[in-house]
């Protein structure tokens, strides 16, 4: 039964392989939607895209800045995380607490996404923003954008940060027992990452 669930996730992934999502701003690490490369958005933490020495790093405001996504599904859960350093492996700060439920496909632009107040960052600190989207069945997709946190960087302007009609998001309400809801969410992320990993095996298995 568990195996059947994994196969279902893999099948859904194979069908949706051409859709997935993109990060329009800040510049993403790689175009993981391109069919001329072998990136897979199923691969955590960053779709299999390595940090190259000439990485495109966007100057992003030290207190938080804009995030612009290109969404392709009818709806999806979105988690935005951040890790500090040049070659981040630990995305241990969340910028979406609670996580979001977005509806509609097209551009979703959040003009001002604040960074945690306890973030030990100063002008010039390098960091990576990780965006994870989760479908209803737990199919997780990953993309990353590398940034340099800057005191002089600014958010996108209103004309640059436009959300398409029909696209919106709501932070997912914590249940009245906020603590247990939070715990459930973290458990879900861990187990769903594992499912996504296995799904990847199946997707590759099927295409070989
Ligand atoms: C992608 O993978 C295929 C099959 O393994 C390989 O032939 C191709 O060269 C790879 N493309 C890139 C850009 O690495
Ligand atoms: C990042 O870490 C990976 C794995 O340790 C390594 O292969 C890669 O060269 C590193 N990139 C940079 C820019 O240091
Ligand atoms: C940086 O972005 C430019 C323009 O989008 C692109 O041509 C270049 O390949 C990117 N560099 C890396 C290392 O991804
Ligand atoms: C995306 O939006 C277009 C029109 O805006 C619609 O035709 C299409 O069915 C939508 N796709 C999904 C997956 O919702
Ligand atoms: C997050 O991870 C970084 C690097 O691994 C570490 O320096 C920092 O203390 C961690 N922060 C928290 C809040 O766990
Ligand atoms: C998220 O939105 C979708 C579509 O609008 C809805 O079916 C789903 O129940 C929502 N999830 C939560 C937790 O509110
Ligand atoms: C911000 O400061 C950095 C480092 O001093 C500099 O390279 C960059 O050009 C400045 N950006 C703006 C918009 O002033
Ligand atoms: Cu997709």
Explained architecture:
The chain crosses the membrane at residues 189-207. Residues 1-19 form the signal peptide. It is a lipid-anchor; GPI-anchor. Residues 18-163 form the Copper acquisition factor BIM1-like domain. The chain is α+β, with helices and mostly antiparallel strands and 208 residues long. It has a single domain, classed as Sandwich (Immunoglobulin-like). The chain is 22% helix and 32% strand. It is built from 2 helices and 10 strands. It has helices at 2-16, 178-207, and strands at residues 21-25, 58-61, 64-71, 75-84, 93-94, 100-103, 106-114, 126-134, 140-150, 168-171. Strands 2, 4, 5, 6, 8, 9 and 10 form a 7-stranded mixed sheet that branches. Strands 1-3-7 form a 3-stranded antiparallel sheet, with no helix packed on it. The longest helix has 30 residues, at 178-207. Residues 1-18 and 177-208 have low confidence and may be disordered. The protein binds 2-acetamido-2-deoxy-beta-D-glucopyranose (7 copies) and copper (II) ion. One 2-acetamido-2-deoxy-beta-D-glucopyranose binds at residues 37-38.
